[in-house]
Batch of 4 targets.
Target 1
Amino acid sequence: MDTRPLLTVVLPTYNAAAVLAGCLESLVAKNDGWLEILLMDGGSKDETLSIASSFSNRVPRLRVVSEPDEGIYHAMNKGVDLATGEWLYFLGADDRWTDAGRIAGLLLEAGDSTDIVQINARKGEDERYTRSMSRGRMLAGEEFNHQTIFYRSSFVGSLRFSRDYPLAADQLFNLELVVKQAARVSHVPEILVHYANTGLSAQQKDTRWIADKDAWIGRMFPPDEVARRRKWRPRERWVKRIVRILAGGKASRIAVHWVQDRLYGGGAAAGNHRQTLGR
């Protein structure tokens, strides 16, 4: 009998006592053994570890590793090395799921033809329209929050987060998977996570990633697609401004995305397989 968990959540922490209980509470709801939680702690000095241990009777597969690390992506890489779940997910201690049971259902529904399952998120009190990951949208420079992404472990394989980018390594990770490895992405337009956007990456910019991002896009995509990017990037700002004015209100965001897809070849034209995983 296969006792492998459906999902491993890698949860990096450091002095997270003020927010950790709420995060773990949202994860363990409706847990019947399908969930593994790896709490990768950087050596907290507050009550983080005692709060985590208080959940051990509710999550048989809760494992706490507390030791000095070299940043969030080092902690996340160590978690990936220990993970046993069919799927991988990375969450901040100040983030919350809205419906753990629904997430389990989506992952169970995802067939072998799906490498990444994406959900929508809410930042603070505002709904966030999470665009489906595709080659075209990454060519346009779009970035995607790791709180909205579930990765099939076998698809990730030996890939790990680059230590060169202390605040944005997940963006290169996604480029590698979606563009270089041609991930098949299923986008589920349901808000199933609230993220606080209070972490270090929300307060600071990864200047090295900003400097290197265009070069990485140039390496990942074939020359003709890179040429299309060079053509449209200088014009995109003005095209988006005109579309926002014409569409107005909430519709302007959807209209801008539609136009951007046409410019860069996103959506179905990107060649990614996306299935509907609705109720």
Target 2
Amino acid sequence: MKVVDPEKGDQYAIIKCAHIRPEKQLLFDDVKNSIAKDYRNHHKEKLMNKVKEQLWKKYDVKIYENILSNKLELIK
């Protein structure tokens, strides 16, 4: 890998991959417990993003970062 340093000029780095794991196709038994949860989470996130976008377009949103961070600190 070549890196250009403004003071030293061209510098080179050697990268070694020491622990290469072969690619593995997961079996259904490996993922059957998480498929339904992952599917719900994916669609929930898409729906939440859509609703958030619609609300941001409909209403004038002002975020007060200092007040928000203070309130979040109180919760911790």
Target 3
Amino acid sequence: MSEPIRRIVALLLIAIGLVLPVYSRKASPPPVGGDVLLAPAASDVLVVDFRDGMSQAEVEGEEAAVGLQLSWASDVSLDEALRSGKVADYATGEAALARLRADPDVEAAEWAVPMQALGYPDDPLYGKQWNFPHIGVERGWRVGGGKGVIVAVIDTGVSVLPDLPAERLLPGRSFVPGTPTSADDQGHGSHVAGTIAQATNNGIGTAGIAPNATILPLKVLGADGSGRSDWIAAAIDEAVDQGAQVINLSLGGGHSDVLVKAVQKARAAGVVVVAAAGNAGREGLGSPADAEAALGVSATGPDDALAPYSSWGQGVEISAPGGNKNLPGGGILQATIGDRYEEWQGTSMATPHVAGAAAVLFGAGAGSADEVERILKLSAVPMGDERKFGAGRLDVGAAVGRLFLERGGLLAVAGGLVSLALAVLG
């Protein structure tokens, strides 16, 4: 190898060495439930079940041949020859697994699969939230539930409720003249915020998609549910300034250049902006959903059909459960003011499903708004007519799986490049 090429390869190795540790930290998910496999490296522990009766010397020899040093899974595992141990990186573990699975002395080999008690969560009304299992939200809970992510709810305000505690809410502010606080005096905003971040597994009421996310309540609609485009635009700007990674806009009206520009600026700042398509039941979106930079959301019912009230057309990027109360139990159940749990329907109810999913992906390590939006669309369940459903119906479980599979796959490629470069340099 010529000296210039050798130097280039060496620099490549240094770059990979600098980037890969940061990338690996983002890609390492918390434990997941045993009913799903999030990614090849959802665990950093390998488990190898050798042929029963093999001696310690025999199994240690087999391990050494593939670069592993494991231990007995427990002090009663010797007769079963069951071994386990942590592996430094995904690529090394995958290479060892490939060789072990071809070894006749190995009965099974895999990444450890974390398990948990069934029946999660214990929210008593969860059984009526058909929309959550429908889109696989349980998988999102197992990767942090949006921990560390700020979601701005620009709406009628959000109030502290028994099932939406104060620690999940930032102080927020009001843009409605004469209304001093961001407290909800209509109910809409609290219902929307509940879908995103209702307290979960707390033995009370309903669950939320990203229960560990933090809500930034920005009140732009009054007690009658109405507001103005300039109030909303100002709130969008404030959400960006306050560090929101996701903005939920379960509201709309006629076209507004001011709102389109505000959404554009927020998106350019790296914020995912999710907006309701509207409830006109016909083709055509208003603002802010008609902004090219917004993720316009149409609504589906329990049967996955487009809800009869949902607007559709150019600007719909994805669909999500918004409810259809023509079907028994078909509304979206969440807490609202007055400590009530009510079934509502609307594209306003569909939009926070997508906002919550975006929060889950950011919390699980997604590095940008571009990555979040791309994964949400690619993982959506295809529904046919893109004018009505966009990329398809939201699937949180598939989105989380895709995030970790893509990141695990990149780590494997990077590991392979390192090995190849080392071999060439050697």
Target 4
Amino acid sequence: MRKTFLFALPVLFVIALFCGCTYNLDDDSQNSFVFKFSCPKEITMKLGTIDQSNETASAPLYANFDLDECTLEYDKEIINYDINTGTITALKSGETKIKATAGQKTVSVNVVVQKAVYCSYLFCSASEKISLEDTAQLNVKTNQSYNMGIDYQSMDTSILTVDANGVITPLKSGTTSIKISAKTSINPSNSNGYSMTYTTTAITV
């Protein structure tokens, strides 16, 4: 019995040493545990940008263990996620969450994919001749299937002004142009967020 006990001691020591050197994903208390997304908690992406490609985003997953040991959950119809490169590719509009789990620890990032609808056709008559006593209505044609609006800008407000509805009010004789822009569906509040700009010439007599 004593010999058996003495023989077991070295075996137990080796087992303890091996366990102490092995990384245990289930032990969240270890200070050496690194497992996180290096990106904002929420990512917003566009589907179908102006060059007709789908947008990608980066959400690198950092860990001090083999990433093959963790499991991923997300809606594969909305996005595709490459765990090795951290690249998210938009597939269709919607919202999903990338959830990565390793042992008892879970990290996640929310992904929102918005459909980008851009105006690709915008037309206005080349010129308008109006008198100082009259006003004129700009008739703009567009293939916008959404109501994001048209922006009008007089390039010389001393000659004429134009309101938000495209009504021209002449102030004095002269020639100037009006810049007409169709807003995009992604960020209509952004002054640079236009998909197409067309300039027409308005002539007052």
